[in-house]
Design goal:
Blueprint: H1 5-13, E1 18-22, H2 31-41, E2 45-49, E3 74-77, H3 81-93, E4 98-101, H4 108-116, E5 120-122, H5 127-133
Parallel strand pairs: 1-2, 1-3, 3-4, 4-5
Length: about 130
């Protein structure tokens, strides 16, 4: 189940507080911008990952996961489903602890690969909705 409550809880409370948010830019109209702010309010460090590599919410941005010079605990994915699988594979390659696909982002094959690599994963859910419920 890709929205398993125990997995959601583990990712949000036990895996660590550094979240790479793929697709995060300074565009305040995009969902990633607001979700990142909520994650920060709940004590998460948010690292923007976007081709523009902008600083967002006070955090330096990077053009890719592999460009981040430190370990990230969770990779939160705000790209469309067709591109999300490659991001999940990159998350595995950089040693992230978990992958979170946002609402509307679903890739069953990426889910199987990521879980097979030993990472926790959630799809089609939003941490900004889930974290306050904890």
């Amino acid at each position: 189940m890709y929205g398993d409550p125990a997995t959601i809880r583990r990712i949000l409370t036990e895996l660590g507080d550094t979240w790479a948010v793929v697709g995060l830019s300074n565009n305040e109209d995009r969902a990633a911008y607001g979700v990142a702010r909520v994650l920060q309010r709940f004590g998460k460090r948010v690292v923007p990952v976007h081709p523009k590599a902008e600083t967002v919410h006070g955090e330096k941005g990077y053009p890719s996961l592999e460009a981040i010079p430190f370990t990230v605990d969770v990779v939160d994915v705000f790209v469309n489903s067709a591109l999300a699988g490659a991001v999940a594979d990159e998350a595995v390659a950089v040693g992230a602890g978990a992958v979170w696909f946002q609402l509307g982002v679903v890739d069953e094959e990426a889910f199987a690969r990521t879980r097979g690599a030993g990472l926790d994963m959630v799809m089609d859910r939003c941490p900004a909705i889930e974290i306050p419920a904890l």
